[in-house]
Amino acid sequence: MLLFEIIAVAMAAVRANILRSVLTTLGIVIGVGAVITMVALGEGAQQRVEKQINLMGTTVLTIRPGQQFSFGVSRGDAQMSVEDAEALKAGTSGLLKVSPELQSRLQVAYLRWNSNNQMMGVWPEYFEIYNLGLSAGRFFDEGELNGRRRVAVLGHAVPGQLGETPGELMIGQTIQLRGIPFEVVGVLEEKGDAAFFRPDEQIFVPQSTAQFRVMGGRDRLNAIYAATATTAELDRAFGEIDRIMRREHRLQPGAEADFNIRNSADLLATFNETNETFTMLLAGIAGVSLLVGGIGIMNIMLVSVTERTREIGIRKALGATKAAIMTQFLVEALFLCVLGGLLGVGLGYGAAALMTRVAQWDTVVAPSAVVIALVFSAGIGLFFGIWPARRAAILNPIDALRYE
Predict the structure, then answer these.
(1) CA distance 304 to 384
(2) Contact assessment for residue 163 and residue 111, using Cβ atoms and an 8 Å cutoff
(3) How does DSSP classify residue 165?
């Protein structure tokens, strides 16, 4: 029997029991749909975090206070001062742009409008470190930093919070931070949120002004930021920062550091590893339903073999070979699984789109996930179809013709 005739007979058998065929593929449909959806959620989360970390800067090193220890016992958070930032700026070999950060959430007033925003006391280099651009006005400069001038650069969303749109209207206006007047000299371009980095809703003032005019002389930094020109220089910069900070904090060689240095690129790599593990776990759980669907395929095919025993006997009596019989039942199982796989892909696409629309979750259906799901469903059809097909192929034609 020719191959196309075997396929035609197999398709006719599937059409003869269309409702049973649809119900048989249901497990495969749900399994493939679940796998596609879970992988789409994982890919969407990964791309979102990558975008956020790239906004933070992959060449940025963040130095934050760590824990102070005495005889192995924590004595609370350590402190970092502006002197630490100045030592980093003066002591590194030209690789770094450095800016300290003093921050405080406070009340902002403008005319009859009020808002609660994060004030960031930074150096002018901060804007270069994070590649922040202006939509209007200018950045404050070194002279204004040294002179403790009351000037401010607003995040993109702040003018709207203070009742002024477009933001250009705020240039030259006076706002009050904790009751202290500040002249607005610039408004940033929209940057978007990136994890803990939210410049659109922040107000930037010179670090010296924040320290002495707003925060009462408090010299306790929240962080120090340092950036290199390329990621290739990060390791060298990391070593220099560690050396200088240990010197400034008078730490003995081998002593535990009372500061933390974090690299955005390392954070991204760590997240990707975690996300891949989590996605594989979810996909594995969803894949169990594929196996259950495969078992359902095998059960129905065994029932089909039993129901068509006389038909098999007649075909064998007319000269059909074992290979032809086995191929027919394998084609039936393969067709059901591939059909279920295709319907499952459509279900997965629909579920991912629904999650994006309704729950506002980022989802990305990767073509590789679709291919893998279809190949896996076809493999299940072959694997679970072999036993029913072999059982049909080895039937004795005489016994099959006698079967009632």
Answers:
(1) 14
(2) yes
(3) S
DSSP code for 318 = T
What is the rounded CA–CA span in Å between residue 371 and residue 206? 54
Q: What is the largest CA-CA distance in the chain?
A: 106
- Tokens for 159, please give them: 């003018």
Instruction: Return d(Cα 337, Cα 252) in angstroms, integer.
Output: 66
Domain segments of the chain as ranges: 3-52+269-402, 79-257
In 92-192, which residue ranges form alpha helices assigned H by DSSP? Answer: 125-129, 142-146, 158-161
What pLDDT is recorded for position 74? 47
- Degrees (nearest 5) of the Cα angle 158, 356, 155? 10
Given its phi and psi angles, is residue 192 left (phi above 0), alpha (psi -120 to 50 degrees) or beta? left
Instruction: Read off the pLDDT of residues 80-102 as tens digits, 9 standing for 90 and up.
Output: 999 999 999 988 877 788 999 99
Q: Which residue has the tokens 């009632």?
A: 404
CA distance 92 to 87: 8
